[in-house]
Amino acid sequence: MHFPEEVNKIIEMIKNKKIPDSYPESLLSRYDPKIDNYGLRDIVINHMGYALIANDWIVPLSLWIGDRKCLEVMSGSGALAYALRKQNVKIIPTDNFSGDDNFHYFWKEDGMMWLEVEKIDAVSAVKKYGRETDIIILSWPFMNNVATEVLETMRSINPDCMMIYIGEGRGGCTANSKFFNLAEPVKDEEFENAVKKFKQWNGIHDFPRLFK
What we know:
Layout: H1 5-15, H2 25-28, H3 37-47, H4 55-65, E1 69-73, H5 79-86, E2 90-95, H6 107-110, E3 118-119, H7 122-129, E4 135-139, H8 146-157, E5 162-167, H9 177-182, H10 189-194, E6 207-211
Parallel strand pairs: 1-2, 1-4, 2-3, 4-5
Antiparallel strand pairs: 5-6
Helix pairs in contact: 7-8
């Protein structure tokens, strides 16, 4: 695979468990067979996960979170929790690593974990930690009913808790229609400004959203 030098630097950072400051938008916004964008995406997924994690949105998001306590379910490699912890966010990462809840099941077997992730399924994690949690983070859930169950459990245990959902919208490749029927968007301009530099791969439409 051929990549520009700036992309090779990002790949080396990710392989060495360092969060990139940003990703070249010109590379992500289109498919270029000379560069092999899909090959790059495979590398990032295999070492980090499906969301493009970078400091240009992690840092402002961390400032928005502040001292609030976070629980991440379906954490996969733990890269997102790792990035947030680097910015002093209080976060507990969890995942059951079965592949039943989400796409996140191969990192643990391949030794590509960014930090220690507690092995527990998403709903059980919310039941265990939800009462003391201010924000639940849910990134790239599979298209079954687990995201809906997490949302319903969050509401029943802690009605004041909010959810940061990172994934595609209704009809996309994450969560299901029932989830989007139940999810209540939270209007928060500071949150929206914090994540405005979040980038997507060519043809992918994931984005951080705030729900209750």
